[in-house]
Automatic annotation (TrEMBL):
Required co-factors: FAD
Pfam families attached to this UniProt entry: Acyl-CoA_dh_1, Acyl-CoA_dh_M, Acyl-CoA_dh_N
Descriptive protein name: Acyl-CoA dehydrogenase
PROSITE patterns from the UniProt entry: ACYL_COA_DH_2 (PS00073)
InterPro entries listed in its UniProt record: Acyl-CoA_DH_CS (IPR006089), Acyl-CoA_Oxase/DH_mid-dom (IPR006091), Acyl-CoA_Oxase/DH_mid-dom_sf (IPR046373), AcylCo_DH-like_C (IPR036250), AcylCo_DH/oxidase_C (IPR009075), AcylCoA_DH/ox_N (IPR013786), AcylCoA_DH/ox_N_sf (IPR037069), AcylCoA_DH/oxidase_NM_dom_sf (IPR009100)
Domain Acyl-CoA dehydrogenase/oxidase N-terminal: 12-117
Family: Belongs to the acyl-CoA dehydrogenase family.
Keyword terms: FAD, Flavoprotein, Oxidoreductase
Keyword Oxidoreductase in record: yes
Annotated Acyl-CoA oxidase/dehydrogenase middle domain residues: 128-223
Length: 404
C-alpha cells in the first residue's frame, strides 16, 4: 500500500484475514442463512461460533480497524456478507455502536464500555446505536429525544427506531438533543449501561430482508444516567455549545460523524451481497442448459454477467479507496465515503435482481438463494443514509453549493 496514493493490493495479513473469514462464511454462515431468514430471529448460535473463533470480539474489530491499509474491515465484511447478510449484520451490528463510542468517547469511556459491548465467547454481549426516530430518519436535525441535566446526571426521554440490536443489546449508544434551539449542533451521544431503568424495547420490526438481524424501537422513559455516560464529557460539550452560540464552527454532528466513519464498511457489506448474487448466477449459467446448450453461451446472458462482474468490481474499488482514505486521514473532498456507499448499495440491488432474471422462474423461488440476496440488498439503498441523501452530500461536495 503506497504512502502517497491508493493502491489496490492486499497485504499478506489482509489476505489471511480474508481467507479466514471466507472459510467461516462458507462453512458456518451460508448454510444457516435460509433457516434464520425464515425464523426472523437473532442467530445466537452463529454469533457464539463467531465469538469462539475470535471473529466476534473487540480484539478482532480493533485490529482490523487499525490495520495500516484501512482494508481489514472492508475485506472481512465483504466475505461475511457474501455468506449471508442477515447473519452478517447480526455479527457486525455491534460495530456501529462501537464506532459511535470510539468517535466521541474519552479513552476512559472506551476502556469501560467497548468490552461490555462484545462480552466473551462464554458470555456474548451486543451493542446498539440509536439515532433514527419515527420523525427523524435521514433528517437527524429533527431528533426529539431530549437529554436534560439533573445535578451530575442526565435524564433522557424519547423514542428511537430502526435500531439494530435495539432493546436486546447490553449497551446502547443514544443520540439526544441537549439544546433543541441549536438543531444538529445541539446534540450529544450517551451510553446507556446494561439494566438501566426506563429503557425498554418497543416494536420489533418484521422486515423485507436482513431478517436474521434484530431491528426494533427503543423507548427511553426518564432514563437516568451518570455524567460519565456523556460521550466526551460535560466540559467538552459545554465548550462546543459555547462555540456554536457564539457563531463559531463546532465540528461534525454526533450521528453524522458515526455514519461517515462507517460508510466504507457498509459499502463493503453491499459488495459482498452483490458478489454472492453474481457468482451464483454465473455458476448457474455455466451448468443450466436450454435449447441444447448452456445458457451462459448466449450473448444475452454472457453480456449481463459481464455487466454484473464489472459493477461488483467498481463498487469494491471505490469502497477500498474510501476505506484507505479514512485510515490515512485523507479528507473526503469529493464525498468519497458517500460515493462508495451509493455505488455499492445500488450495485447490490441491480446485480441481485439480474441474478433472479438469469435463473428465471427458479430464481423467484426460495429453492435458490438469489431471491433472499435481492431482499437483503434493498436495505443498502436506505439505511445509514438513503441513496438520495448520498447524492445530496455528493452534490454539495462537487458543486460547493448548498444543494437542498
Amino acid at each position: 500500500m503506497s504512502e502517497t496514493g491508493f493502491c489496490p493490493e492486499l497485504s499478506d495479513d489482509v489476505r489471511e484475514v480474508r481467507d479466514w473469514v471466507h472459510d467461516f462464511a462458507r462453512s458456518v454462515v451460508r448454510p444457516a442463512g435460509a433457516e434464520w431468514d425464515e425464523r426472523e430471529e437473532t442467530p445466537w448460535p452463529v454469533i457464539q461460533e463467531a465469538a469462539k473463533i475470535g471473529l466476534y470480539s473487540l480484539d478482532f474489530f480493533a485490529q482490523q480497524w487499525f490495520e495500516p491499509s484501512g482494508l481489514g474491515l472492508t475485506v472481512a465484511f465483504e466475505e461475511l456478507f457474501w455468506g449471508d447478510a442477515g447473519i452478517g449484520l447480526s455479527i457486525v451490528g455491534t460495530g456501529l455502536a462501537a464506532a459511535a463510542l470510539s468517535a466521541g468517547g474519552t479513552p476512559e469511556q472506551m476502556g469501560e464500555w467497548l468490552p461490555q459491548m462484545f462480552g466473551t465467547p462464554d458470555d456474548v454481549r451486543l451493542g446498539a446505536f440509536c439515532a433514527s426516530e419515527p420523525d427523524a430518519g435521514s433528517d437527524v436535525g429533527a431528533i426529539r429525544t431530549r437529554a436534560v441535566p439533573s445535578g451530575d446526571d442526565w435524564i433522557i426521554n424519547g423514542v428511537k427506531t430502526w435500531a439494530t440490536n435495539g432493546g436486546i443489546a447490553d449497551v446502547h449508544v443514544v443520540v439526544a438533543s441537549v439544546d433543541p434551539s441549536l438543531g444538529t449542533r445541539g446534540q450529544a451521544s450517551f451510553v446507556i449501561p446494561p439494566g438501566t431503568p426506563g429503557l425498554a424495547m418497543g416494536r420489533k420490526f418484521s422486515k423485507h430482508g436482513i431478517r436474521a438481524s434484530h431491528t426494533a424501537e427503543v423507548i427511553l422513559d426518564n432514563v437516568r444516567v451518570p455524567g460519565s455516560c456523556l460521550l466526551g464529557g460535560r466540559e467538552k460539550l459545554d465548550a462546543r455549545l459555547a462555540r456554536v452560540r457564539s457563531g463559531e464552527r463546532a465540528g461534525e454532528q454526533a450521528a453524522m460523524r458515526t455514519f461517515e466513519t462507517t460508510r466504507p464498511s457498509v459499502a463493503a457489506m453491499a459488495v459482498g451481497i452483490a458478489r454472492a448474487g453474481y457468482e451464483y448466477a454465473r455458476d448457474y449459467a455455466r451448468e443450466r442448459e436450454q435449447f441444447g446448450r448452456r445458457i451462459g453461451e448466449n450473448q444475452a446472458i454472457a453480456f449481463l454477467l459481464a455487466d454484473m462482474a464489472t459493477r461488483v468490481d467498481i463498487a469494491r474499488l471505490m469502497t477500498w479507496r474510501a476505506a484507505w482514505m479514512a485510515r490515512n486521514n485523507r479528507a473526503f473532498g469529493q464525498a468519497e465515503g458517500s460515493m462508495c456507499k451509493l455505488v455499492a448499495g445500488e450495485a447490490a440491488v441491480w446485480v441481485t435482481e439480474q441474478a433472479i432474471q438469469i435463473l428465471g422462474g427458479a430464481g423467484y423461488t426460495r429453492d435458490h438463494p438469489v431471491e433472499r440476496f435481492h431482499r437483503d440488498a434493498k436495505i443498502f439503498t436506505i439505511f445509514e443514509g438513503t441513496s438520495e441523501i448520498q447524492r445530496l452530500i455528493i452534490g454539495r461536495a462537487v458543486t460547493g453549493l448548498p444543494v437542498r
